[in-house]
Structures
1.
Amino acid sequence: MIYNLPFYAVIIIIAIGLYIIAFKRNLIKIAMGITIIQSGVNLFLITLGYRKDGLAPIFTHLPKDTPIPNGMVLPVPQALTLTSIVIGVAVLALILSFIIVLFREYGTLDTYKMRRLKE
Amino acid sequence: MIDTLLTHAPILIIAAPLLTAFILPLIDKVSTKGRNILALCAVVFTLILVVMLAQDVIENGIRIYTLGGENAHMALPSGYHVPVRITLVVDALSAFMVIISSLISFVGLLYSFAHVKGEGTGKFYTLFLLMLVGMLGMEMTGDLFNLFVFLEILSISSAALVAFYIRKGQPIEASIKFIIISSLAALFVLFATGLLYGEYNLLNMGALASEINSQTGGLTLVSQFAFILLLASFSLKAGSAPMHMWLPDTYGEAPGAISMFLVAGTQASLYALLRVIFTIYNTALDTSIIGGLLIILGLVSIFIGVTMALIQIDLKRLIGYAAVAEVGYILLAVGVGFFELAQGELSEYGLKALQGGIFHIFNDVLDIGLLFLVAGAIIYLTKETNLNKLGGLARSMKYSSFFFLIGLVAVAGLPPLNGFASKILIYEAIYKVSPLLSIIAILASIFMLAIFVKIFYSVFMGPQLPSLSNIPKTPLLMLTSMAILSGIMIFFGLFPDYIVDHLVTPAVNALVDNFTYITSITGGI
Amino acid sequence: MTLDTFGGYWSPLVWLLAFIVTFLIGYIIWGLGEKRHKTGEQLKPFISGLAEPSKKDVHIQGGNVYWGFTESLKEYYKYATKMHTGILNDYILWFIGIAAIFFLVIILPGVL
């Protein structure tokens, strides 16, 4: 039961992130919400690879006669997570630079007032 | 030499623009003309390789290119073969989409040489080539995580290109909406990939397809949940109503030829949706429910796109709403095709509907692209986007009004151009499911004719306004790119059976028959 | 040269030939009419002797061309323009709502 705790945490984190994006009006808070959802998905990918009593997947550091591959945690989700973290940093940098220019032009950060392109 | 190029063609198609995109800022510091020539060389090289590869694939069947190995498998000591290598899979549908992307990039690059002026234009061409890399990668990849990475490359470079000119803050507003919605959709695609990896321990699309379609087990609750996330995310990125609202904002504020290139990018997301539905999850799903959902999405897109376009007064936003309606046609045809799928075979009218839908992808990009190019030329010369202030431009822009007339006839689906050829395939095939669908589709075509006649009358016809009396001539490169698109459209319209037999039918056969896809990856093991 | 649709055929070259023949017949009939046509003073519009207003005043603006049509569909357009608000949060709520509808339609019939 306690081994399922990271999966419950993933669901709670993604739900909090979706609530922030859908209901908060400030653009900086929406950017924070995107980052929270990214953290939740990264946590989900890492948790998929865990095996009970597994060791780090480095060949030369394993003690003798650990069964390969059952004695290690899975290395593939770790590679997926690294790529996802880097993409997340790039997207966040782009969103924040857009927010800076937007505040200089419009004078406000409220999404309810940022509606020149409506209908 | 030609044999080596053809063997390594899939990776060279992605690598050539990628390498050029990162060399361009260095060459820009030395000379501007050299940068333009290098970008043009990269795009022409990609186009030639794409045509050679497409010819080879359509004749000889599916091609798999494994990065860094002999075949896609790795044999464990127990004798079990598991497909773990990164693969690029090119079948007839991928070849079709790759032809579209590289052709549109060539035309867009020619147009941008005349349109983009000012400082900092070196970065424009870098982002342009990166967008091309994202599209080509999404259309040729063989596993799900690569799809996510190339989707993010496409989204980030598109968002940066839409916001390239800070006019009064409006492109920035459109771009921030685009990047937030895009990154949310891409995160859900990554979540679905994680779910599928946790369930089946596989990321390769062919191996996943063989696991999901196997007789024992197959579709579990987790994979159905992953399918819902993939369907919702990719149909958001493809611009289907009622999640379409970012599309007119983004297309309406992008500069010049970027609007046309964004249409090709949206079709790449539509291609990913087709891959997920038809190849990975073929008949394991309940075809009547999913087909019905796609038909309903298509109908709502057509209706909302066409009626909201009638009341717009901004020139490019109006064409953006018409683009939403065109995506609705494709979803309608594909929904009818999926509705009829049973064990890798289609009844005859399902096949015709899918042919019409896939042919309409190409026609949609050509028609809406030509309209965006003419609108870009009008805005570049008169600096006005409001329809209320434009009028009587046919005297000074003769050639542009002629190309707009060709685009109008094609988009409305009038004979003899290519819009009619694909639309008549769709009308006659969806009639069998329910006559109401055909009636709504034909009515929507009449609405589209009404919308574009409104623009043609109010922008080009009428007396010449005194405020627009001395505008310069259209640059020659812009007219050349419009002429290339018009020539292709007239050729497709006068010889549609040539295109349908040689390009579209192999694509439809590759889409429906996922057995060939699976056995060429797993090797029958 | 013909495209084979589900219900019949579509041949664009035959259509183009028929169009050109019909156009030629119409053009010849038009050319057999009156040939007197003056230029210059006779081309100006005649408004009972009043002065002709400037082109800017008689120009029908682009947004007003289909006034009758949009006026008769005002109920639908009032609802549709309220749906397209332009607020970012509403775009995301539509996405989550449609994903929830997909969930209800696809998964629940299988489970229940």
2.
Amino acid sequence: MRVNGVDHPAPSDPRRLLSDHLRHDLGLTGTHVGCEHGVCGCCTVLLDGAPARSCLMLAVQGEGHELTTIEGLTADGAALHPVQQAFHECHALQCGFCTPGFVMSVVGLLAQHPEPTAEQIDEGISGNLCRCTGYASIRRAVKRAAELSAK
Amino acid sequence: MKPAPFEYHSAATVTEACSLLVSLEDAKVLAGGQSLVPLLNFRLARPQHIVDINRIAGLEGVYERDGGVAVQALARQSAVEDSEIVARVCPLLGAAVRLVAHRVIRNRGTVCGSLAHADPASELPAVLLALGGNVVARSTRGERVIPAEALFQGVMETALAPDELITEAWFPASPERFGVVEESRRHGDFALAGAVRAGARLALFGVAATPVLADPKDPVLGLRPSGDLEASSEFRLHLVRVLTARAFAA
């Protein structure tokens, strides 16, 4: 499987979840693991460009697919991705645990709706939980990300 | 939590998937995995074998058939949500699929997988029942069509044999008047109760072991929903009355 542009062999153990493979085998610890049953959204990555829960996929299923984690949104040393920049500007994180998942979901949301309405923003982030409850800033950040992406 | 050990098999064709299912003891089909993988992670399901159908080519279609919409086994819920054919022929299915979890889950989850999983609180089985649709089940013995009325047998139990695979589901065209309404604690959660209207037909979900057809004039007749921490039995009956009225108000 190709992760952030680099080819890696799939793990031999089929029980290995994609989330654990990314974190423990590839050292990509930006993908966070919260609930491991698809509710919290912390482990969201891009599978062939569309957001998906990495805790609900077996790593062997990634074979032949293109995966992007938070580490791969921009090249090393490059400027922040517009969604990351917007989260930074709008203070859309407190503890930061949920942030990688939110950012990956919002990348997917903006691909689907480049100019999202308030309703589409709520729907788009509804699958991610922020236990600091910083949702107001996160909503603002999604709007800002849409502006930055349009530039 | 991590899955208990299992043997993993990836099928390249429907024929191969059926051969695997008939030859393996205690095998589960893995499609979108949005229900099965949580069950594996919690070890609520501990199958000996997993038959992954995701690599089967040509099984992702959504197409018009017999005046309705056929949704193949690997058509993701998000693709059904975005489908022009679904919007035109069966907008009820399009409306219902938007209520399934969240977009990120729908990017992987499949319509056929949701029907095979048969969670009594899920929307799509009730939609299939309200519309009078069916599923096509394939095994090494051949193909058979199972109508919605016969498919759902109990909580997460269907008429599918252990070696049968749903290759597609068929939803008749939505009648002019239709609607799907539900009440859940949080957006994207499983519904406490829900109602699907297709013309004069009403199917309820979340209030019995399977989705059930009901009389719109007296939707609670014969219903005895279970109560839990989220909603008492009486509250679920109240919801059925209110949701039915809303579904038929349009």
